[in-house]
Amino acid sequence: MSQTGVLEGADAPTDEEHHHGPDKGILRWVYTTNHKDIGTMYLLLALGSLLIGGVMAFVIRAELFQPGLQLVDPNFFNQMTTMHGLIMVFGAIMPAFVGLANWLIPMMIGAPDMALPRINNWSFWLLPFAFSMLLSTLFMEGGAPNFGWTFYAPLSTTYAPPSVTFFIFAVHIMGISSVMGAVNVIVTIFNMRAPGMTFMKMPLFVWTWLITAFLLIAVMPVLAGVVTMMLMDIHFGASFFNAAGGGDPVLFQHVFWFFGHPEVYIMILPAFGIISHIISTFSRKPLFGYTSMVFATSSIAILSFIVWAHHMFTVGMPLAGELFFMYSTMLIAVPTGVKVFNWVTTMFRGSMTFETPMLFAIAFVVLFTIGGLSGLMLAIAPADFQYHDTYFVVAHFHYVLVPGALFSILAAVYYWLPKWCGRMYNESLGKWHFWLSFIGVNLTFFPMHFVGLAGMPRRIPDYALQFADFNAVVSVGAFLFGASQLIFIYNVWRTTIGKKGIKATDLVWEKPEGLEWTALPSPVPYHTFQTPPKVD
Amino acid sequence: MKRVGFSAVSALLLLITSQSALAEWGLNMTEGVTRVSHEVHDLHMTIFYICVAIAVVVFGVMLYSIIYHRKSRGAKAENFHESTVVEIIWTVIPLVILVGMCIPATATLIDMYDNTDSEIDIQVTGYQWKWRYTYLNEGVDFFSNLSTPSEQLDNTQDKNINYLLEVDKPLVLPVDTKVRFLFTSKDVIHSWWVPELAVKKDTIPGFINESWTKIDKPGIYRGQCTELCGKGHGYMPIVVKAVSKQEYKTWVTAQAVAQAAAKEIKDMSFDELMIQGEKVYNTNCAACHKKDGTGIPPMFPALKDSSIAMGDISNHIKIVLKGKQGTAMSAFAEQLSVSDIASVVTYERNAWGNNKGDYATPMSVKKIKDNK
Amino acid sequence: MNTPRYYVPARSHWPILGAFAVFLTLFSMASIIHESTHSQVSMFSIAMAVVAGFLMLYMLFGWFSEVVNEGLRGLNSDQLKRSFRISMGWFIFSEVMFFAGFFGALFYARTFSVPWIGGEGVKGISGMLWEGFTAHWPLVKTPDMTQFQGPMGLIDAWSLPFINTVLLIVSSFTLTFAHHSLRHENKAKTLFWLRSTLFLGAAFLCVQVAEYGHAIHELNLTVSSGIYGSTFYMLTGFHGAHVTLGAIMIFVMYRRVDNGHFTPDDHFGFEAAAWYWHFVDVVWLMLFTFVYVL
Ligand code: HEA
Ligand code: HEA
Ligand code: CUA
Ligand SMILES: [Cu+2]
Q1: SS3 B309
Q2: Is the pTM of this model over 0.90?
Q3: B270-371 belongs to which CATH class?
Q4: pLDDT tens, position by position, C145-172
Q5: CA distance B116 to chain C (A)
C-alpha cells in the first residue's frame, strides 16, 4: 500500500527518500518493498521447497524400490506422501510462479513496481511462517498429516493425528498469502500499465497471470472454508462430514475439489504464458493466434469451475452428475488443444534455434500434451473406474506438473536470468541439465502408466510382486532426475553469485518481443521504470 | 545442434511406440471377466488409440518444423500469426472427436449404473483394515483379512506369488449371476476394487453406494482397497472366488452350518485360549497395537503394561466388545465370536510380559455382551 | 507539466511484523485448541496468544496510521487511489467466496445428504443404515441421536432474526445517509448518521448474542446438534465476526470524519468501510432467507 504510481510533474512531493540502490545486509530483504527482491525471495523459497519435497519423494521412491518394507513404516510413508504433495504444490510450484510474476509483470507492463508493494512483502513473509508451521508437524507427537494432500474426511478429522490442527492453521496462512498476492497482481495489471499498454497488447504471461490471480481469489477462500469446517468437526463437535449428524464425508470432497481443480490450473496457466514467450522468441516468429490464446485461457479458467467432481467419479454420485462432470471435463481439451496447436504453428515455418529455454519449452509442449491426453482418458468416467487412485493418475499429474509446470519454471529462469542479472548462464551446463532431466523425468513417470493400468493403487508403501520391475526403474529415474537438478542449482549459482559467464546484451536473445527486453538494460536496474516507457 | 534434435525425435518415437507395443505385453488394463469389464477395456483402447493418433499428428508437425525450420539449416522465419479459419478448424475437429468418445462412454456408464434385477445382494463393509461381506439373503456374514504372514512383509521370509493379494476368507460368488453390491464403511472411506470385474466404488461411512457384476468365468480375481484409509491402506486386499452356481449353493449351506457352530460356546483351556488368542490378535489387532503390544503412541496405545490390560478384566472385555467411539478402536462384538474375544483378551493379559495370570472365558464374554 | 515520473516505494517494517503477528496469532490459537482436546491448555500458549494479540493490534494500528498519514500528506496519487479501490473490491470478492463455501455446505446437506440418509432420492438406499430416521429440514432429530443430540426447537425467523434483519437494513440506509452528508460537507450530520449506524450494528450484535443464548440454553441448539446446528453457527458466527469487523471499521471512520480526514470527493477509507458494511448486509439477507426462513 505504499506510494507507487504516476506522479504528475512538479507538485509531486519530494520529501520521501529515494532509494536508488538496495539497502545492505539482511534487512534489505526483510523490509523490502521492491518487486525484484520479493520475486527473488519467492523463487528461493520455491527452490528450498523443491529440495525438501524432492527429498520426501526420494524417501517414497526408496521405499518403493523393492517390494517389502525396508526403510520406513507405513504411517511415516503416508506422512511423506502427504507432505510431498503439499510442499510441492503450495511450496514449490505456486511460490515459483508468484516469484516470476513479481519479477516480470512490472517489467512487462511498464510499471515501476507492484501496485501494493508493502502488501507484496507481507504476502511473501507469511509463507516461511506457514511452511515452518507445516513442517513442524513432522516432529509432533503422532507425526505429520498422513491423510494425503487431498485430506479426505473423516480420515483427516476423526481419525487424524493431533497435529492436524496445526496443518489447518498453516493452510489458513498460505490462503491469506495467496489471496493478498493475487489481489496485488490483479490491481497491478488493471491499474499500473504504462500508457498505451492496452489489454490486447499485454504479453501473454501477464494475461495468464491475470486469469490465474482471478482463480486464486475465487478458490483459496473456499479452501479456507473447508479446513475451517474440518476444525469445527474435530474440535467443536460439528457434523459437516459425519452422517450421524446429517452431514456427508463426500461433502468434504465437493468443497475441496471446488478449490482443487481450479488449483491445478493455477499451476499451469502461468506456464502457458511462459512457453508462449519462449517459443515465439526462439522460432523468431510472432506468436500464432494471440487473441485465441487469450480466449482459450479464459475458457479454461471458466470451465475449471464446473468440472471438479471428475476427481470423484467413484464416490457414487448420481448418474446425472457423473455425466455432467464427464462432459464438462472433456470440453477442457478443446481450448487446451487450441493452445497446443498455436504453439506448434508458431514453430512451423520459423527459424528455430535450440538454446536451453527452448529445449525445456519444446519438452513442455510434448510432455504436457502426453499428460493432458492421459487426463482426457481419466475424464471418461467408466474408464476412470479402472484408473482412479492408481499410478495411472500419479503418472498423469506428474506429467502435467513436473515436465509441465516445473519445466516451464526452469525454462523461465534460463530465459530471463540474463536479463535479471546481466550475465549469460553456461549453455553447455544448461544442455546437460536439460537432457538428464528429460531422460530422468520420462524414466520416472512413464512406467507409472503401466503399473497403474496393471492395477497398482497409489499411496501404498508396499506392493504385489508383479509391479516390482517397473517400480525399480521408476526409482532409478527419480534419483537421476533429482540429481540433475543439482546442475541447475550450480549453473544459477555460478551465474548470479559467482558472477561467471559473459555479459548479456540488453536484448539478450536475437529478437525477443516485450518491454523487458526492448526498454530495459541488462541487468535491470533496481528500480525498474523511472518513467513510463513508450508502448507501440 | 542436429544431433540433439534427432535424439529428441528418437526418444519421442520410442515413447509413443513403446506404449502401444507394451500394451500387448500384459501391462495394459485387464480385459476382465465380465461384459462390463470388456466394454470398459474396449473404451480404454479406443480412447487410447485416438490419443495416440492425435499425439502423432501434433508431434509430427512439430518434429517436421524442428527438422526443417531450424536456423542452422538456413530457414527464414515467416511472419504469419493469425488465421481465423484454422482456429475454427482446430476447435471444431477436437469437439467432434470428443463427441465421438462421449457416445460409447455414456452407454457404458448407463449400463454400469443399472442395478436392477439382481439375484444376490451382498453388503460390503470397509473396516480399518479389512472387509466384511454380508450376504443379505443367505444369512452368511464374515470378515476377510490379509493373510500374508508378517515375516514376508519384513523381508525375513521369501515372498510368495500372491504377496499382499491373499486373504483368509475370499468372497465367493457364483458365475453367470447378477450380483448387486451395497458398499458402506464403518470408519473412514475405503474403495473396493477388483480390476477383472471393473468394479471400483468408494465405501462411504453412513451411506450406501451400489454397483453390480456378472462374472463370466470361474476363477480367482484379486484386487485392493484404493482409497487412502490410514496406515493399513496397502494391506486390505480383496479376493473374489467365482465358482459355478452349484458349487456356490453347497458353499452357502456349509457356511450357514459353520456359522451356527461358531455361535456355540465351548469351554476352552488356558492354553487353547492363548494359542487361538495369538492368532486372533495377529490378524485383527496387531495392525494398530503392533505384534509386540507396544502400539504406536499416541495414536494407538500400547497394550503391553496398559492400565486396561493389566486392570479389571471386565473393562478390558468391554472395550474390545464395544470399541471406543470416535477413535480407530472399533467395536469387535460383531466382528469376532465370543471365543475369539475371550482368547484375545486372555492373550493380551498374558503375552509380552503382561503376566496378569487371569483369563476370560467365552461364557464370561457372552455374559458381558448380552448385558449390553 | 513535465513528463510523468514514477514514484518509488519506501521500505517498511510493517509487512514482516504483520506476517509474524499473523503467524503467532494462528499458532497460539492452534496450540490452545490442540491442547484443549489433547491435554490441558498451557500457560505458555495463553501467554503466546496475549503477546500475539498485542502485536496484531500494534501492527494494524501502526500500519494503517502510516497509510492514513501518507494519504493526509497528499502522497497518494490518483493511480494509487484507484489501486486501493480495485483491491478492496477484489478483497470483498474473496470474502464472498469464503461464505459461498459455507452456503454450499448448507445446500448440499439440505438437498442431498439429509434426504439420502432419510431414505429419499437417488441414494435413498443409504436409509437402511439409519432405521427410524426420516428426512426433514431444519434437522431436529439427527440420524444418530446418541452421538449428536438434536435441538429441542428452532428459532422463529420472525422473532429476533427478523428484528436483526430490520436493524441491518436500516443501518445500510443510515450509512448511505452518512455518505451523502459527507459528500455535502455536513460534518455534524455525517457524524450523526455514523453514530446511528454504529448503534444499529451494536444492537444487531446484542440481539445476536441474545439469540445465541436462547438457542443454546433453551433450545439446546449448538454446533454439535447435527448438521443444522453446524451450518447455523458456522454461517451466523462468521457473519457476526464480519459485522464486528465492519463496526470497527465504521468506528475508525467516525474518528477520521471527526478529525477532518475526508473531503467531499476524497474519502476512500470511508467508502471501503461502507462497501464492506453493505457486503455484510447482503450476506445477512441470504442468511435470513436460507437459514431462518426457508
Ligand atoms: C497442472 C496440473 C494439471 C493439469 C493441467 C491437468 C489437466 C487435466 N486433467 Fe488432471 N490432475 C492433476 C493435475 C492436472 N491436471 C492432479 C494433481 C490430479 C490428481 C489429484 C489427486 O488426486 O491427488 C489430477 C487428476 C485428474 C483426474 C482425476 C483422476 C482420478 O483421480 O481418477 C482427471 C479426471 O478427469 C483429470 C483430468 C484432466 C483433464 C481432462 C485435463 C485437461 O486440462 C488436459 C487437456 C489437455 C489435452 C487434452 C492435451 C492437448 C490437447 C490437444 C492436443 C487437442 C486435441 C485433443 C483431443 C481432442 C483429445 N485429472
Ligand atoms: C507439484 C509438483 C510435484 C512435483 C514437482 C513432484 C515431483 C516428484 N514426485 Fe510427486 N506428487 C505430487 C506433486 C509433485 N511431485 C502430488 C500432488 C502427489 C500426490 C500426493 C498424495 O497422494 O497425496 C505426488 C505423489 C507422488 C508419488 C506417489 C506417492 C504415493 O502415492 O504414495 C510419487 C511416487 O513415486 C511421487 C514421486 C515424485 C518424484 C520422484 C518427483 C521428482 O520429480 C522429484 C525430484 C526431486 C527434486 C526435483 C529435488 C531435487 C533434489 C535434490 C537435488 C537432492 C539433493 C538434496 C540432498 C542430497 C539433500 N510423487
Ligand atoms: Cu481401505 Cu484403503
Ligand atoms: Cu481436476
Answers
A1: coil
A2: yes
A3: mainly alpha
A4: 888 988 988 888 898 999 999 999 999 9
A5: 13
